Amino acid sequence: xxxxxxNRLQHRHDFVVSNKQGERRTKLILVLTVFTMLVEIGAGxxxxxxxLLADGWHMATHIAAFMITLFAYRYSRLHTHDNTFAFSAxxxxxxGGFASSIALGVVALVMxxxxxxxxxxxxxxxxxxxxxxxxxGLLINVVCAFLVKxxxxxxxxxxDTDHSESDFEHAFDAEHExxxxxxxxxxxxxxxxxxxxxxIIALVAGKYYGLSGLxxxxxxxxxxxxxxxxxGLIKETSPILLDENxxxxxxxxxxxxxxxDADNRISDLHIWRVSPGYFAVMMSVVxxxxxxxxxxxxxxxxxNLHGSKNHLAHITVEVNLCSDEDCLASDxxxxxxxxxxxxxQA
Length: 346
Hints:
Elements: H1 3-9, H2 20-47, H3 50-78, E1 86-89, H4 92-120, H5 127-148, E2 153-155, H6 168-171, E3 176-178, H7 180-209, H8 214-241, H9 248-259, E4 265-275, E5 278-287, H10 293-298, E6 312-321, H11 325-345
Parallel strand pairs: 5-6
Antiparallel strand pairs: 2-3, 4-5
Helix pairs in contact: 2-3, 2-5, 3-4, 3-7, 4-7, 4-8, 5-7, 7-8
Transmembrane segments: 28-50, 56-73, 85-110, 130-148, 185-205, 217-234
Keywords: Ion transport, Membrane, Transmembrane, Transmembrane helix, Transport, Zinc, Zinc transport
InterPro entries: Cation_efflux, Cation_efflux_TM, Cation_efflux_TMD_sf, Msc2-like
């Protein structure tokens, strides 16, 4: 009876960020990292090198983070149309990125504690072996970084329509969807590369210039930089997971757009991310002259940039007729004013 209307009015709930290329690259990086870890641990046992063993076991933390990433990709893919989730499994990738950022923070904390300890109790450093390990690790990290660098952002579908620049391009990520899950992998790789570079500098300075105290100092610097990266990713992912409202000025602009039409007033407005690049909107409109919900949704089309990209992807509008005494008195005043104008013109 109402099939056509129901099909037209039903919202889509598939907000999963699909990045198959990123998933494949992560699998390759995981294999390279496992191979590197086994080589370093094996060499450390054979040559009795603590540096090799320490770096090998350090790689295990990155392997754990990469496995979190792959799990999040697989879970999102398998539960894309799972009605268990109100807005699909679109936030699973964000959760994976958040978990990996916590792991990255733990790595930074361990580095910081170990470096501070070595400031007060210096260890004998096997410079040659340590330099070889750092160079080998850096080479692997450079290869891995190039594998994922261009896949952290997923380009959105665009059309040829000319869309003017606006402040909302930054709010709605008009150019790209951010794959926080893969970004966490990228930051783990950069963290390992930074550690290798700082270690090489410190080891060369210690071997040739006798600056053995530079090694723990470089470790502290590396830990602070990595902590900042981890904090940045936590700051990006946690608002999405906690359904944080969109920023005040963008929310105010949307409210002004609705209220600039007729005598509309918004009594309730909520805008939050349901996944990277997609927002849900719930608003309650009070007006003397109610219209269909589609009318109010059409007023928000300017916030959906790049034509084919529907950033305000799930809009729910409640329309309320203003029937209080003040509203009725206002209607009567408007009617009397209109009558007087018509009489004067006659």
